[in-house]
Fold:
Amino acid sequence: MTQKMIPIFPEKPMVMVGCGILHKEVDFLIKKNGWNVETQFLASALHNYFDRLHNELNEALSVDDAQGRETIVFYGSCHPRMDDILTKHHTHRTQGQNCIVMLLGFEKFMEELGKGAYFLLEDWALTWEPMLTECFGKNPAVIREIFHSSHKMVMALRTPCSTDFTVAAQAAADFVDLPLVWMDVSLDHLEAVLLEAITRKHVSTL
Structure:
C-alpha cells in the first residue's frame, strides 16, 4: 500500500459494514478524510460465534442490497465462509487477516505475536470477563489454561481514539493471569487499508 489512491466519491454514500472493535478509529478516519462513507458496525464479540457472525453480516448486507446501496465489508478472515458472503453480495472486504493486522501491519503483528502477545483493544477490555465466560464457561482455571497455552502476555493497544482503559486492561490481564504491556499505535496503517478498500470499490463500480 505504498501508492496513495484517491477515490472518486459518488453522491450517494457507500456503506462500510463490519466489526465494531475499531468503530471509533474507523469513524474518525472517515470524518478526517471526508470520505462519503456511512458505517454499520456489528458487535465485536461475534468473531467467537460463526453462526451469529454469518447471519448478522449476511442480514446487514441483504438490507443494504435491497436499498441499492454499495457496500464494503470491514472484516478480516473472521469466518470460514467470508468469501462466499462477499461473493453473494457483490462486495469485498478490507485487506488483512484480522483487525489487528489492519491496525499494526502484518510485520509488526507477526513480530509481537511471536513474542507471545495477545492483543487487547479497548472494546474487548471493557467487555472482557462476560465475553470470555459466555464463550468458554465460568471456570477461570480453564480460561487461563487456554490463554497460557499460546500467550505470554496481554498487549493493550492504545490508539489516538482510545479513552483511558487502564483499569479495564489490567483487570483483563489479571483475569487470565498474564502480565500486561502497552503499545501506542498510530492510525496510519488502518487509514491506508480503508483507503485501498474504498478506492477498489469505486473502481469496480465505474
Q: What stands out?
A: The mean pLDDT is 92. DSSP finds ten helices and six strands in the chain. The CA atoms of residues 90 and 185 lie 33 Å apart. The longest strand covers residues 14-19.
